[in-house]
Amino acid sequence: MMGPRQVAQGALFYEFSLDTHVPTDHLLRSIDRFVDLTGLRQELAPFYASTGRPSVDPELMIRMLIVGYCLGIRSERRLCDEVHLNLAYRWFCRLGLEGRVPDHSTFSKNRHGRFRGSDLLRRLFETVLARCIAEGLVGGEGFAVDGSLIRADANRQKGVEGSAGLPPEVVSRAAQEYLAVLDEAATPVPPKFISPADPAARWTGAHGGQAFFAYTANYLIDLDHAIIVDVEATTAIRQAEVTAAKRMIERSRERFDLYPARLAGDSGYGSAEMLGWLVYEHGIEPHISVFDKSARTDGTFSRVDFTYDQPGDVYHCPAGQVLTTTGTLVNDGATLLYRASKFDCAPCPLKARCCPNEPVRKVPRSIYEGARDMARDIARSAEGKTSRRERKKVEMLFAHLKRILKLDRLRLRGPNGAKDEFHLAAAAQNLRKLAKIIPVPQPRPA
Description:
By secondary structure, the protein is of the alpha+beta class.
């Protein structure tokens, strides 16, 4: 028997609770326990006028952004529609059934104004990180660092020649931010192409495929539970990534008193200067592959074939002769040059395999070679193999960032836009990690 037709009719009185309609295992219910925005209004108070029409509650906007970045809703226009329709989203944003969702344009106005001027999104990330530390998820013993390319919101077809420079008629906000940080990101080699829409985005073809404009998201994570300890947005060049790694390590010490004993990373962070900075200035064990181009391919002896005598500060060649140094530094004061004697090299039977085109053999040694040797010894040890395996946690976070949170292409332009997106995404990943590791307490039966 067919049931009666359902006819919609309005009830005069009803009782409805959003809390009872949000499942206990819903992601937002798990995350809500760790979102603390109590000091938000006080921090933003200097950025609001004392008169005029009341503004949209900043806590509402931050909660909506958390929903968007935790659940991969990239469009703010769509985010407003989803919050308007979804009961769980309304519950998390404290809107109730009749609360009005702000217009999507409100986010742009506050992002370029109050949020950026107060560095609010950075404070949001640090608040979530502080909660991770309080819950015991950050061991502080071992860190890992890496960077990943994120496509910029720039059309590759409209790039201009890098040697020609930025067109003078370009006066966008992204162009002004580019000029403001130009000295920090400057390199001796000009970019091949510049995007007029986002000049700070770097033209790169690092993956071997089609080149594109991109920024780099740099993560510093704790290896215990893969909690993101710090995040930095940089232009897509290796020099900027190494600088960002130093900045993140120092900032984690200043803000949270974290002193890691070891740092894991790929060979991009294995330059002599970087290894020396870790070992000599901060006492951090470099679990990093050494960046070394001393190997020769012409059949002659490489530097590894020469034995260094630490007490005597000399090298011994394969024939047993001694190479000494005068102490003069070359290569901008970063390298010592060790030379053999002409009287030893001329009659040597191994000269054809050592220095066939030179009268004597020269061996360069970095002033940071001690740190490089330490990194090589660690790489051959069992601890080094473990660190290489644990370093994949950073790559897994980047895969999660791009596939689950859908941040494989930026929506905001300029260095500040990239910084805002990366801070929100890192905060969302830490919140999801908290929700996953710390279960929701179940109510005890009566």
